[in-house]
Design brief:
The complex is a heterodimer of chains A (about 110) and B (about 110). Chain A has about 110 residues and is mainly β. Helix content of chain A is about 0%, strand content about 55%. Chain A contains no helices and eleven strands. In chain A, the strands form two sheets. In chain A, strands 2, 4, 5, 9, 10 and 11 form a six-stranded mixed sheet that branches. Chain A has a five-stranded antiparallel sheet with strand order 1-3-8-7-6, with no helix packed on it. Chain A is globular. Helix content of chain B is about 0%, strand content about 50%. In chain B, strands 2, 4, 5, 6, 9, 10 and 11 form a seven-stranded mixed sheet that branches. A four-stranded antiparallel sheet of chain B has the order 1-3-8-7, with no helix packed on it. Classes of the chains: A mainly beta (about 110), B mainly beta (about 110).
Amino acid sequence: SQQGEEDPQALSIQEGENATMNCSYKTSINNLQWYRQNSGRGLVHLILIRSNEREKHSGRLRVTLDTSKKSSSLLITASRAADTASYFCATGNNQGGKLIFGQGTELSVKP
Amino acid sequence: DGGITQSPKYLFRKEGQNVTLSCEQNLNHDAMYWYRQDPGQGLRLIYYSQIVNDFQKGDIAEGYSVSREKKESFPLTVTSAQKNPTAFYLCASSTPGQSYGYTFGSGTRLTVV
Protein backbone atom coordinates (compact mmCIF):
# COMPACT_ATOMS: atom_id res chain seq x y z
CA SER A 1 0.00 0.00 0.00
CA GLN A 2 1.22 3.47 -0.80
CA GLN A 3 1.37 5.69 2.25
CA GLY A 4 2.38 8.96 0.72
CA GLU A 5 1.25 11.14 -2.09
CA GLU A 6 3.71 13.58 -3.55
CA ASP A 7 2.96 16.84 -5.20
CA PRO A 8 3.73 17.86 -7.85
CA GLN A 9 4.34 14.70 -9.88
CA ALA A 10 6.75 16.63 -12.08
CA LEU A 11 8.53 19.95 -11.66
CA SER A 12 10.65 21.85 -14.16
CA ILE A 13 12.72 24.87 -13.08
CA GLN A 14 15.74 26.89 -14.14
CA GLU A 15 19.14 26.56 -12.53
CA GLY A 16 19.43 28.82 -9.50
CA GLU A 17 15.74 28.67 -8.63
CA ASN A 18 14.38 26.91 -5.56
CA ALA A 19 12.46 23.64 -5.85
CA THR A 20 9.74 22.66 -3.39
CA MET A 21 8.21 19.20 -3.24
CA ASN A 22 5.40 18.14 -0.91
CA CYS A 23 4.48 14.82 0.62
CA SER A 24 1.28 13.86 2.41
CA TYR A 25 0.73 10.64 4.34
CA LYS A 26 -2.16 8.87 6.01
CA THR A 27 -1.17 7.10 9.21
CA SER A 28 0.91 7.98 12.25
CA ILE A 29 4.67 7.88 11.81
CA ASN A 30 7.82 8.05 13.89
CA ASN A 31 9.97 9.46 11.11
CA LEU A 32 9.84 10.67 7.52
CA GLN A 33 12.71 10.38 5.08
CA TRP A 34 13.54 11.83 1.67
CA TYR A 35 15.42 9.96 -1.03
CA ARG A 36 16.78 10.85 -4.44
CA GLN A 37 16.88 8.54 -7.48
CA ASN A 38 18.78 9.23 -10.67
CA SER A 39 17.33 7.52 -13.73
CA GLY A 40 17.88 3.76 -13.68
CA ARG A 41 19.78 3.82 -10.40
CA GLY A 42 19.16 2.98 -6.77
CA LEU A 43 17.86 5.46 -4.23
CA VAL A 44 20.12 7.63 -2.12
CA HIS A 45 19.10 8.71 1.37
CA LEU A 46 19.02 12.51 1.73
CA ILE A 47 17.59 13.38 5.11
CA LEU A 48 15.51 11.98 7.98
CA ILE A 49 13.18 13.99 10.21
CA ARG A 50 11.64 12.53 13.34
CA SER A 51 8.01 13.00 14.31
CA ASN A 52 8.96 15.32 17.19
CA GLU A 53 10.95 17.62 14.87
CA ARG A 54 9.48 20.40 12.77
CA GLU A 55 12.36 21.43 10.55
CA LYS A 56 15.74 20.09 9.53
CA HIS A 57 18.53 21.37 7.29
CA SER A 58 21.30 19.65 5.40
CA GLY A 59 23.37 21.77 3.03
CA ARG A 60 20.97 23.13 0.38
CA LEU A 61 18.13 20.92 1.64
CA ARG A 62 15.44 22.03 4.06
CA VAL A 63 12.75 19.63 5.25
CA THR A 64 9.67 20.52 7.26
CA LEU A 65 7.21 18.20 8.95
CA ASP A 66 3.69 19.03 10.10
CA THR A 67 2.28 16.01 11.90
CA SER A 68 -1.07 17.72 12.49
CA LYS A 69 -1.54 17.99 8.73
CA LYS A 70 0.32 14.74 8.00
CA SER A 71 2.53 16.49 5.50
CA SER A 72 6.16 17.27 4.76
CA SER A 73 7.99 19.44 2.29
CA LEU A 74 11.47 19.27 0.79
CA LEU A 75 13.05 22.52 -0.37
CA ILE A 76 16.16 22.50 -2.53
CA THR A 77 17.69 25.96 -2.68
CA ALA A 78 19.78 27.35 -5.54
CA SER A 79 19.15 24.30 -7.70
CA ARG A 80 21.72 22.92 -10.12
CA ALA A 81 21.36 20.84 -13.26
CA ALA A 82 22.88 17.95 -11.27
CA ASP A 83 19.84 18.01 -8.97
CA THR A 84 17.76 16.59 -11.84
CA ALA A 85 16.33 13.34 -10.45
CA SER A 86 13.23 11.81 -8.88
CA TYR A 87 12.64 12.55 -5.21
CA PHE A 88 10.71 10.23 -2.93
CA CYS A 89 9.38 10.62 0.57
CA ALA A 90 9.12 7.55 2.79
CA THR A 91 7.46 7.10 6.15
CA GLY A 92 8.56 4.85 8.96
CA ASN A 93 6.60 3.65 11.97
CA ASN A 94 7.12 0.92 14.52
CA GLN A 95 6.10 -1.91 12.18
CA GLY A 96 9.29 -3.83 11.74
CA GLY A 97 11.43 -0.98 10.49
CA LYS A 98 9.94 -0.99 7.02
CA LEU A 99 9.46 2.18 5.02
CA ILE A 100 6.49 3.01 2.81
CA PHE A 101 7.35 5.15 -0.19
CA GLY A 102 5.38 7.80 -2.04
CA GLN A 103 5.05 7.96 -5.82
CA GLY A 104 7.81 10.51 -6.22
CA THR A 105 8.34 13.91 -7.80
CA GLU A 106 10.36 14.12 -11.00
CA LEU A 107 12.50 17.24 -10.88
CA SER A 108 14.12 18.70 -13.98
CA VAL A 109 16.58 21.56 -13.56
CA LYS A 110 17.43 23.29 -16.83
CA PRO A 111 20.84 24.95 -17.21
CA ASP B 1 34.25 0.36 0.84
CA GLY B 2 31.03 -0.72 2.51
CA GLY B 3 27.98 -1.08 0.36
CA ILE B 4 25.22 -3.19 -1.03
CA THR B 5 25.63 -5.07 -4.32
CA GLN B 6 22.88 -6.32 -6.58
CA SER B 7 23.48 -8.66 -9.47
CA PRO B 8 22.91 -9.02 -12.29
CA LYS B 9 22.18 -5.49 -13.49
CA TYR B 10 19.97 -6.81 -16.30
CA LEU B 11 18.11 -10.13 -16.36
CA PHE B 12 15.88 -11.71 -18.96
CA ARG B 13 13.37 -14.37 -18.05
CA LYS B 14 11.44 -16.70 -20.27
CA GLU B 15 7.83 -17.49 -19.58
CA GLY B 16 7.47 -20.15 -16.86
CA GLN B 17 11.02 -19.79 -15.62
CA ASN B 18 12.18 -19.02 -12.08
CA VAL B 19 15.01 -16.53 -11.69
CA THR B 20 16.99 -15.43 -8.65
CA LEU B 21 18.23 -11.91 -7.98
CA SER B 22 21.25 -11.52 -5.75
CA CYS B 23 21.67 -8.95 -2.97
CA GLU B 24 24.79 -8.82 -0.80
CA GLN B 25 25.78 -6.21 1.81
CA ASN B 26 28.94 -5.70 3.85
CA LEU B 27 27.54 -2.95 6.06
CA ASN B 28 26.78 -5.29 8.97
CA HIS B 29 23.12 -4.26 8.73
CA ASP B 30 20.59 -6.51 10.41
CA ALA B 31 17.60 -5.62 8.23
CA MET B 32 17.24 -6.13 4.48
CA TYR B 33 14.40 -5.35 2.08
CA TRP B 34 13.24 -6.02 -1.46
CA TYR B 35 11.19 -3.47 -3.38
CA ARG B 36 9.70 -3.48 -6.83
CA GLN B 37 9.49 -0.32 -8.95
CA ASP B 38 7.38 -0.03 -12.08
CA PRO B 39 7.95 2.79 -14.61
CA GLY B 40 7.01 6.19 -13.22
CA GLN B 41 5.89 4.61 -9.95
CA GLY B 42 7.00 4.52 -6.36
CA LEU B 43 8.47 1.52 -4.58
CA ARG B 44 6.35 -1.37 -3.37
CA LEU B 45 7.61 -3.71 -0.65
CA ILE B 46 7.92 -7.39 -1.59
CA TYR B 47 9.66 -8.99 1.42
CA TYR B 48 11.76 -7.85 4.34
CA SER B 49 13.98 -9.49 6.93
CA GLN B 50 14.97 -8.04 10.30
CA ILE B 51 17.26 -10.88 11.33
CA VAL B 52 18.93 -13.98 9.95
CA ASN B 53 16.57 -16.94 9.33
CA ASP B 54 13.47 -14.75 9.59
CA PHE B 55 11.55 -12.75 7.00
CA GLN B 56 8.08 -11.27 6.49
CA LYS B 57 5.84 -10.65 3.52
CA GLY B 58 5.41 -7.14 2.28
CA ASP B 59 2.52 -5.73 0.28
CA ILE B 60 3.11 -7.68 -2.96
CA ALA B 61 4.74 -10.99 -1.93
CA GLU B 62 2.69 -13.26 -4.20
CA GLY B 63 4.87 -14.95 -6.83
CA TYR B 64 8.11 -14.18 -4.98
CA SER B 65 10.22 -16.04 -2.42
CA VAL B 66 13.27 -15.14 -0.32
CA SER B 67 15.74 -16.67 2.09
CA ARG B 68 17.99 -15.16 4.75
CA GLU B 69 20.56 -17.81 5.66
CA LYS B 70 23.38 -15.29 6.15
CA LYS B 71 23.36 -11.76 7.51
CA GLU B 72 25.07 -10.49 4.37
CA SER B 73 22.75 -12.05 1.81
CA PHE B 74 19.06 -11.75 0.93
CA PRO B 75 18.33 -13.33 -2.48
CA LEU B 76 14.95 -12.89 -4.16
CA THR B 77 13.45 -15.56 -6.42
CA VAL B 78 10.87 -14.49 -8.95
CA THR B 79 8.80 -17.58 -9.59
CA SER B 80 6.67 -18.55 -12.58
CA ALA B 81 3.63 -17.70 -10.43
CA GLN B 82 4.47 -14.00 -10.75
CA LYS B 83 2.43 -13.09 -13.82
CA ASN B 84 3.87 -9.66 -14.48
CA PRO B 85 7.50 -9.72 -13.33
CA THR B 86 8.93 -7.11 -15.69
CA ALA B 87 10.11 -4.33 -13.36
CA PHE B 88 13.09 -2.73 -11.65
CA TYR B 89 13.99 -4.53 -8.40
CA LEU B 90 15.74 -2.73 -5.58
CA CYS B 91 17.36 -4.23 -2.52
CA ALA B 92 18.08 -2.17 0.60
CA SER B 93 19.50 -2.63 4.06
CA SER B 94 19.36 -0.69 7.32
CA THR B 95 20.33 -0.64 10.98
CA PRO B 96 17.64 -1.17 13.63
CA GLY B 97 15.61 1.90 14.48
CA GLN B 98 16.04 3.47 11.03
CA SER B 99 18.15 6.27 12.44
CA TYR B 100 20.26 6.46 9.33
CA GLY B 101 17.85 5.54 6.58
CA TYR B 102 18.21 2.77 4.06
CA THR B 103 21.19 2.01 1.87
CA PHE B 104 20.08 0.87 -1.57
CA GLY B 105 21.72 -1.27 -4.18
CA SER B 106 21.87 -0.12 -7.80
CA GLY B 107 19.00 -2.36 -8.85
CA THR B 108 18.26 -5.24 -11.22
CA ARG B 109 16.08 -4.69 -14.29
CA LEU B 110 14.12 -7.85 -15.04
CA THR B 111 12.44 -8.33 -18.41
CA VAL B 112 10.24 -11.20 -19.53
CA VAL B 113 10.99 -12.32 -23.09
